[in-house]
Design a protein that fits this description.
The complex is a heterodimer of chains A (149) and B (127). Chain A has 149 residues and is α+β, with helices and mostly antiparallel strands. Chain A contains six helices and three strands; from the N terminus they run ααββαααβα. Chain B has one helix and eleven strands. In chain B, strands 5, 6, 8, 9 and 10 form a five-stranded antiparallel sheet that branches. A four-stranded antiparallel sheet of chain B has the order 4-3-11-7, with no helix packed on it. In chain B, a hairpin with a 7-residue loop joins β8 (89-92) and β9. Classes of the chains: A alpha+beta (149), B mainly beta (127). At the A-B interface, α2, β2, α3 and α4 of A face β4 and β5 of B. β2 (49-53) of chain A pairs antiparallel with β5 (48-53) of chain B.
Chain lengths: 149, 127
């Protein structure tokens, strides 16, 4: 992938500004091959949810030197939901990832903690990363469908 | 990258002007154009890391750069070719958070439905 932004330039910009600059420099979005299918332990009657990365976000992850370490996201908010460590989003960047690594990053960033870590003590697996073409497109079927892995 | 540092931007012909802080803080900080049918897919977006298909007509957008808190706004709309002539709307349904927004596409009479085009834009102060 062509390098459109250096690490030093990225660190001189806020996270959201990096995306603006990369859009202007025609960073090509990457159509995702994978998605995360997961069940919410707080709403077991709901159908499985499907999380799909944004093509632009995926392109930035694979470009490298744009996104912050994923470890900053859980530290951002206090118990009232206000962001207290926002500078963490802008102070550091991680190198280029493969698409598979980007999905693992996204899992930690956007999937609730209690889905990933079985916080209720159960041994039931509540998520799977799979190819998007493996997910049924028929909504009436999918609404009655459970995750079995 | 070059930078223009100004206090005010003024239209040369009309004299209409706006403060730089208005332009910086008044622009959309996140937006998305989503195909909400089948396996949902973002056609284009800004400051969105992922979208969650949470069931029929229920979509959650996760922000890449979080907001400072839940005191931000979200505007959304839908374009649904099979829609009836009235009663179609979108609404944010979860408690507003700094990191995500959940939007439901609702059709007359008050049922959620998958939409071919869901539009979202969001304003506020970013972290």
């Amino acid at each position: 992938m062509t390098q459109l932004m250096t690490r030093d330039e990225a660190l001189s910009l806020k996270l959201w500004q990096r995306e603006l600059v990369l859009k202007e420099r025609k960073l090509k979005p990457v159509e995702p091959r994978f998605c995360i299918v997961w069940e919410d332990p707080n709403d077991l009657d709901a159908p499985p949810k499907v999380t799909t990365p944004s093509p632009m976000w995926l392109a930035m992850a694979m470009h490298g030197d744009v996104l912050p370490p994923v470890s900053v996201y859980p530290l951002l908010v206090d118990d009232k939901g206000a962001v207290i460590e926002g500078h963490g989003l802008h102070d550091n960047v991680v190198p280029a990832m493969t698409e598979e690594e980007a999905m693992e990053y996204l899992l930690q960033k956007d999937i609730p903690y209690n889905v990933r870590d079985n916080a209720d003590g159960s041994n039931m697996r509540r998520f799977v990363i799979c190819r998007r073409d493996m997910v049924p497109t028929d909504r009436s079927y999918r609404n009655a469908w459970r995750l079995a892995v | 990258m070059s930078k223009i540092i100004v206090d005010t931007v003024e239209d040369k012909s009309t004299g209409d002007n706006a403060g730089a802080e208005y332009l910086v803080h008044g622009t959309a900080k996140a937006w998305a154009n989503l195909d909400g049918t089948g396996i949902v897919a973002l056609r284009d977006s800004f400051n969105i890391s992922s979208v969650v298909d949470g069931g029929t007509g229920i979509y959650t957008f996760n922000f890449n750069n979080d907001y400072l808190d839940g005191n931000r706004t979200v505007l959304s709309d839908q374009n649904f070719t099979q829609a009836t002539s009235s009663g179609n709307s979108t609404c944010e349904t979860a408690v507003p958070s700094a990191s995500a927004t959940e939007i439901r596409a609702v059709a007359n009479p008050n049922t959620t439905h998958d939409v071919e085009n869901l539009y979202m834009s969001s304003f506020g102060d970013l972290a």
